[in-house]
Amino acid sequence: MPQIQPNLSSPSSELGAPLKSLIARAEEALVRSLPPADTAPVELHQAMRYAVLGGGKRLRPLLVYAAGFALGEIGPRLDAPAVAVELIHAYSLVHDDLPAMDDDAMRRGRPTCHIVFGEAMAILAGDALQALAFELLAHELDSGVSPASCVEMLRVLGRACGADGMAGGQALDLAAVGRKLTLEELEFMHACKTGALIRAAVQLGGLAAGASPDQLAALDRYAHAVGLAFQVRDDILDVEGESAVLGKTAGKDAAADKPTFPSIIGMEASREHLDRLTGIALDAIAPFGERAAPLAELARYAAARLR
Amino acid sequence: MPQIQPNLSSPSSELGAPLKSLIARAEEALVRSLPPADTAPVELHQAMRYAVLGGGKRLRPLLVYAAGFALGEIGPRLDAPAVAVELIHAYSLVHDDLPAMDDDAMRRGRPTCHIVFGEAMAILAGDALQALAFELLAHELDSGVSPASCVEMLRVLGRACGADGMAGGQALDLAAVGRKLTLEELEFMHACKTGALIRAAVQLGGLAAGASPDQLAALDRYAHAVGLAFQVRDDILDVEGESAVLGKTAGKDAAADKPTFPSIIGMEASREHLDRLTGIALDAIAPFGERAAPLAELARYAAARLR
């Protein structure tokens, strides 16, 4: 395990070396957890690996690790939840990219899963990734987490993925295209669609580290703000960003007539909103002191990232 | 809870009244567990309810109850696993029916989920049902199951749903269309595609009832045989059955050039295979004595059902 010396002097649009080394840790854990590409059903396994191992910011695993660190936990029991949330995130992207959903042909600068493996295999790969996430989390006992905490982790993940969380948010998003949303409706949609899994990542890190109810509540205030900030930044980047840097098509939301923060409250208010959310996140984790530095760095990164 | 007096004199192509009353119990538990049709996201909730509450044999919940009864457990702790396996089964049907998969417009005598709600909502409803299954099972603690057993149940369900189970079997099935399979390949495909969840149902019933490792092993021998018998019967019905009774198109497998037991080993050998499998299933549960009568009835039903 690398020592975490958060790089607070680095520009917050990029992660410092310690968090980058955690990306490598997440990457290794993901590779270990996915089924081998050369065993049957080969095509399904390949599609699952393609969907997960194709880069990505690994923000959710980083949040698991950073939340665990805030509680003094740095051991292997953070790996299963880090992998689980990323498998869920990857599956959601595969399904969101399908022709019947957002119909995206490119993701992270590569053809999307259904373009490479066909729609049927992409649907199945997503389904199998979701199942694998829960299965791996149920193996968390092997790294010394108590059965009661393990069950709670599974409950948190299940809720975050379902109709009250990610899947529900995607349904709200589909229903919102071409409609005029209020700021509250937009925030609720994002709180479900991306916020629920981000909050789950932080909760899982906390639960794996044995956080108290008060600590879990503080972590959740942080995660709620970071999740929204991440989305506000996404919307700003969609207006300002360059496709080559984003790895996806800039201006796509506007073209699809999707409601965004800039389209509802304007660009300047969106930036102010972002600052406010970052402040809320940093306040929430103040009680954790020095150990919360990685969480703080991630909060600043979520608000300032360039892709 | 109704007393179970298994109706051994009833024709085995139909379930006796006691098992039918358990279908009603499963139905009530399903209705309680699904999100309400009138809360947001309304369309997603409606699609989930449509997918699950549209009839069906409820074989998997019945197997949960019957396995629990074999161990002397009849209480509410069987309800969450009964619901969980049926939610998984329902989600798999929704995704299997999609145009990119089997492209079925009718199921259980009604238009399929994507015909009614559109493809995007059908994909999301399936995704949300899978998440809900795990979430509900993680609430099993509330009915008094130990945390360790609860984690084991989640692990069993996760494994049954993933690349080594149901999703993997569906991938093998897609790859098999138009190919000549050996009997072993066909059995492996079905062992994954439908067998894994049937075995999980029986294991979950056993685990909820506190079964010993030996008892779980006996239950699994039973479930493995019943799962295969169920599929052999399915293939025979596809040749012999009437669409009106089946609620789906008879002869569809042959028309799609899908490998089946009759197409590989012939009709007579398929029937003999069915008898052999039923014998194996009944032998496996003999040690449970009288209490295994519901399991026995389900084994006979799986092999003799007319739809």
UniProtKB/TrEMBL annotation, chains A, B:
<dbReference type="GO" id="GO:0008654">
    <property type="term" value="P:phospholipid biosynthetic process"/>
</dbReference>
<dbReference type="Pfam" id="PF00348">
    <property type="entry name" value="polyprenyl_synt"/>
</dbReference>
<dbReference type="InterPro" id="IPR000092">
    <property type="entry name" value="Polyprenyl_synt"/>
</dbReference>
<keyword id="KW-0808">Transferase</keyword>
<dbReference type="InterPro" id="IPR053378">
    <property type="entry name" value="Prenyl_diphosphate_synthase"/>
</dbReference>
<dbReference type="InterPro" id="IPR008949">
    <property type="entry name" value="Isoprenoid_synthase_dom_sf"/>
</dbReference>
<keyword id="KW-0460">Magnesium</keyword>
<dbReference type="GO" id="GO:0046872">
    <property type="term" value="F:metal ion binding"/>
</dbReference>
<keyword id="KW-0479">Metal-binding</keyword>
<dbReference type="GO" id="GO:0005737">
    <property type="term" value="C:cytoplasm"/>
</dbReference>
<dbReference type="InterPro" id="IPR033749">
    <property type="entry name" value="Polyprenyl_synt_CS"/>
</dbReference>
<dbReference type="GO" id="GO:0004659">
    <property type="term" value="F:prenyltransferase activity"/>
</dbReference>
<dbReference type="GO" id="GO:0016114">
    <property type="term" value="P:terpenoid biosynthetic process"/>
</dbReference>
<keyword id="KW-0414">Isoprene biosynthesis</keyword>
<protein>
    <submittedName>
        <fullName>Polyprenyl synthetase family protein</fullName>
    </submittedName>
</protein>
<comment type="similarity">
    <text>Belongs to the FPP/GGPP synthase family.</text>
</comment>
